[in-house]
Amino acid sequence: MWQRQKAGENSALLQARQINIGVGVEDVEYISTKMAMEVFSAHSRDAFQLMAERVETFARTYVDQILLESPEAIENIKDPGVQAAILDAESAYAKSGDDDLGALLVDILTKRTSIMDRNVAQLALSESIHVAQKLTAQQYSSMSLIFLLRHVKFGAPSLKVLHQRLRENLDPVAAEATITGADAQHLIATGCAILLPISQSIPEAISGTYPGFFCMGLESDNPAVRDLPASYFQTCIRDPNKVQVGCVDEQALSVLTEQNGASASEIETLKGLLKANPMSHDDLIKELIAVAPNMQSVEEKWSKTLFPQLSLTSVGLVLAHSNLLRLTEGRFDAPLEVFLS
After folding, report:
1. Residue 269 above 60 pLDDT?
2. Single pTM value for the model
């Protein structure tokens, strides 16, 4: 059985199970279990017993995680939409008994229980619970890989930190991630991904996300450089004889130009210079393989399959995010809301 959140005697977790917020913890466990038992009652006695044991474990794990992350959300158990999501998640785990799926469903269900507004996040979470049981472990790893390389922007203060974060997060998903034509069709059919009209290589994705880390520098006597204040530039991190725009990406550049009251023409020039003279694709891949050896297999898979053309939907983002949280044991901790906003 997958590991549940645990705490020692007299800990905050045990105390939390005694809180009084209208709907008690025991009520949640009872309601969650009772709904599932009514649905499963038509199964054979042996099947019903096994499913009942799984549902009981799931319900307890679910309640423990809510108490740990957002205890006030327990009150939301009264909502029909939340109850439907609980039943959907419990049914998926009860039928499969897959502990990895159970852990992922608990995470998604906990988030869904906390959101009462009918918005994109709530709808994506509800649909993700329904879709979760329809995917293989390989497809989860593949979505998490797409998520990391196409949708995630690490707030890395330096190139060294970026290398470290890429390595730490790629390692858990690199081995199993692979996309056959059938996998791509399945992810699209289940609403997890879309096929883009153009492809994007790994170097294009990485250098496009972090242009300041993969710039080969500009000559200081470049007319465009000379016409702008020196405060917008720094010594190139890859060539001390050259300069580069002193920002990692356009978001950081936007903050810098706003602080300095840059004109519209200056902003456009700086955006162009930020992406000017990028590292060659071959050299970028070699660098990534040197710091993250698993990038070798990732690059081979990416370049020979449909990976470059796949992008995740809101449902795919939820599933890939929760899977990455599970695989990295919390090292990847960016909130889901960042990717659904």
Report:
1. yes
2. 0.83
